[in-house]
Amino acid sequence: GGLGGVMADPEGDGDVDDNGAVRKQFTALLVDGLLLFLFAACCFVGKRIALLRMQGPRKDLVVSVLDISIWAGLWFAFSVSLVVYNKWLLYSWEGGFDFPLLISMFHMMLKYALSSLFVRCARSKEELPTIPRSIWWLSAVPVGIATALDVAGSNASYMYITVTFYTIVKSSSLIFVLVFSIMYKLQPMETGLIVSVFVVGLGVMLASYGDTTFNGIGFLLVLGTSFVGGFRWALTQVLMKQIKCNLNAILTIYFISPASALTLIPLSLWLEGPRFITSKFVTQPHLLVLSILNIIGAGIFAFAMLLVELELLGRTSSVTLGIIGYVKQMLQILFAVLIFHDKLNLLNVFGFLFTIIGMAMYARVKQIQAPEHNGYNQTKDQFSAFSFEDSEFTRQDFSNSEIELGMYEANELDDGIESPYEQNTVLARSQSAESYESIDLR
């Protein structure tokens, strides 16, 4: 039956759709998303006040913190909103539009269409941006393929393992980010940095721990997606740092989304195509039209979230973005405890403490590092999804640049699309202690 053929109720108790818990979870997630948007708006107002009123050396620090907080809040909010939308589409609407790979494929195609439209409108009197063929084949295509494999691997893993085990193994992704960041000289090899990342990863594993069943195939699939995720995050930062022009989020999506879409097309058609063609969503015209509209709506959310994620990456670093993603996961578990009264055992509590300690260590290490070690931070003012004014993005720009291999991170958290295995786990740590980082982020 393909990836989408996994039963929506893995426990087989049949009470997924009719109890009020799902609606309660959706409502809570929606409120959470609105609060995060409000938080981002408050940070924006605070930043404007700081720019107008504050003086002295603290001004730059306060403005920088508020700027990052704005984009982090928006990232969290779009991620949560996308989860709500996709859960409704996958599990509730007309019994569930159970084709996650097809949705991901259409989202990639929509991202390319939207980014192309934006680029053409912004550069109506100029030539469209191009990149050398060597950079296209050595950077855009490999990372686009990696993005597609990340999506497919994550969805496939749910056929073999619980979401708890997925979360625990996926916690290794930041370790791979750190390894690739050191390889590409994006981060210095400092003991404090390495220790802090491992402490945070250990904390997330402990905080997510529950009853798990090991499966070798599922373990390898998740470990592979963690490796691919670290590869993409680090190489995205490499590209942004090395190209001497305004490579912004729109252009990043514009160059890598075709490869991702072309990779997902055969995977989705092979695994989900035959079942989709014979489903009611194709045979009934009104459902076909509504399906297209719903996919477009979710795709716009995914496009907006990816823009925000790339903006956040441009203002921090790949490792810092990973830490922020872990913060989101901790908030997700805490939210489940406060709203749904989920229980935490002693290991979970220790996991929270380890995570807090690790993040404090990481913040201290970043504070004492020299400015030149902060990766792409020094060019953050050039990185904007909505800034084309000074961007002469042509083949000549690339020819005069010192370019290393690299491209983009689309860990939109698997496009925000979750496996049917997550039907009972809209938030982390459900009654069976299952948790998932889909409100993560890819």
Explain the overall architecture.
By secondary structure, this protein is mainly α. It has one domain. The protein is built from 15 helices and no strands. Helix 2 runs antiparallel to helix 12 (about 285-315). The radius of gyration is 21 Å and the shape is globular.
Count of helices?
15
Overall number of domains: 1
Largest sheet: none
Report the β-strand fraction as a percent range: under 5%
Mean pLDDT: 67
State the shape.
globular
Please identify the structural class as seen in this structure. Answer: mainly alpha
Number of strands: 0
Order of helical and strand elements: HHHHHHHHHHHHHHH
User: What is the share of helical residues?
Assistant: 55-70%
Key words describing this protein structure:
442 residues, mainly alpha
Summarize the entry for a quick read.
Helices cover 67% and strands 0% of the residues. By secondary structure, the chain is mostly helical.
Produce the secondary structure layout.
Layout: H1 20-53, H2 58-92, H3 100-122, H4 133-157, H5 163-170, H6 173-183, H7 191-208, H8 216-242, H9 249-271, H10 273-277, H11 280-283, H12 285-315, H13 318-340, H14 346-368, H15 395-399
